[in-house]
Amino acid sequence: MVCAARRLDRIEALAKEIDGRAIQCDVTSAEDVAALAEAVGDQVNLLVNNAGGAFGFEPVAEADLDAWRRMYEVNVIGVAAVTKSLLPALIAGEGQIIVMGSTAGQVAYEGGGGYVAAKHAVKAVVDTLRLELYDQPVRVCEIAPGMVKSEGFALTRFEGDQARAEAVYAGVAEPLTSDDIADIVAWVATRPAHVNIDRLTVRPRAQAAQHKVHRVQ
């Protein structure tokens, strides 16, 4: 098991828990991605493309285009770069590619223009890749979560504004958690080799759609 992330201290802690190897890797760095491919070797059974994030919540008319570029680099180019780099090893290992998408890749919402655009692009990359690998022993899946109360997603989007981040989940008794998503990744990854889950959309029960969330006082 190889664990790769920008923050080496975090990934070292995870690797220790699961008896894996920790590698520092920024998916927007060609050098880091090449080093990752060299480190994992000639055969890979599973690639989980989990890097991503949203930056900002402005309307398109007020868009921070540098933030949009960052989102595209991390969410889309990063997925493409890592997948391209590891694809020969995935084919050799008859492996699986799981990409972390979002319901933002299915439905637009106000203030989400840059992130919505990036996640729609992620969906397109996944669907194109599946078509291109139809004759190869590699499965391709996108997991598209809705509202997940994770450690840093909303804080990153709102540049550390704790009050705005907490408001996203205010009144939602049971949003999804990172553990829920990890459990789904494990389920997808352990289906029989002939079974491909093309796309799995998951929301908390309280979220019927992007704009319809049950909140309690």
TrEMBL record:
It comes from the Bacteria. InterPro entries: NAD(P)-bd_dom_sf, Sc_DH/Rdtase_CS, SDR_fam. Keywords: Oxidoreductase. Pfam families: adh_short (PF00106). Transmembrane segments: none annotated. PROSITE patterns: ADH_SHORT. SUPFAM superfamilies: NAD(P)-binding Rossmann-fold domains (SSF51735). Belongs to the short-chain dehydrogenases/reductases (SDR) family. This is SDR family NAD(P)-dependent oxidoreductase. It comes from Kribbella alba.
